[in-house]
Here is the input.
Amino acid sequence: MATEPSNKFGNYNKGDIDPTTGYPIKYIPYQTSNLCISIDSELNLNWNASEELNFIPDFGEIISQVNLADSIVDRIFSRKKNRIAYKKILAEVLSRALEDSDSKSARNILKEVNSRILQHSQEEIRINYILSAFFSVITVGLLIILSIVFEKDILNFLGNDKNTFTIIIATLLGGIGAFITSFFRFQNYKGSIIAGLFIHRLDGSLRVFYGLIAGMTICLAIKGKVFAGFADTQSTWLIYFFAVVAGASEALIPNLIKQTEKETNFRDSKDLKFKGTELSNELEHETIIPSADMTDAKNHTLNQENKEEILQKESSE
Here is the structure.
């Protein structure tokens, strides 16, 4: 934005250098002798006004909302056609606020354009999310096909280890299961407009990646007899079925991990309690000498152990 005392704003043409950004002007949505609202070659929305214009009291609030909407348009919409269309509507908001001093009309248009940007942005986010997941699962599908076609070569490379081959296929099938869930949730997916498209593209790919992890985890759990160990003695298709279900489920793997952690923590707590009972008497008679650094503390521990060895030798003699 720039304000100048002259009335030269009606002389700006397409291709002229915009005084605000220094880029060539590509579109001029609104132009008078006192005001020029333009869109440059980098699709920046700019406005240059004469000092003769009277700014309405709430212009600062309106321009802040316009700038926010403009930044969201740049962040979300990758197609230039969509960005230009919304920026032209935002230019209309600026013209009402600057030239007409019509705050009510400017706010009404701004409210309508914000609503359209919100709806269109959500649709753009959903499309980028599902496309990212789709291309990721296509890659996984190709790897499954290649693994089946070159099964003999892969087994030779693995030293004829069929268990490892089964884990590989189960891992890939977990990604297929994750995409199934992502596809069914596509219509109800709501992302963050402020986050931008990259985060949602990453989210779509990570959904498939999490499915890969889930498929591998459930296969290892079956092989280790931690979960559904009976499936390891059945056809490998049963393991593959569990892998797809694990990839599609957001509760199966977390619950399995929580169950394992609970059992592990329970055993660890019993071990610690047992060890603590044994060491309690020794700690009661041990004198704790504070030290300035870890080296002194380590030396003190070694000296204490040497003393205990000497006492044991003396008692045995």
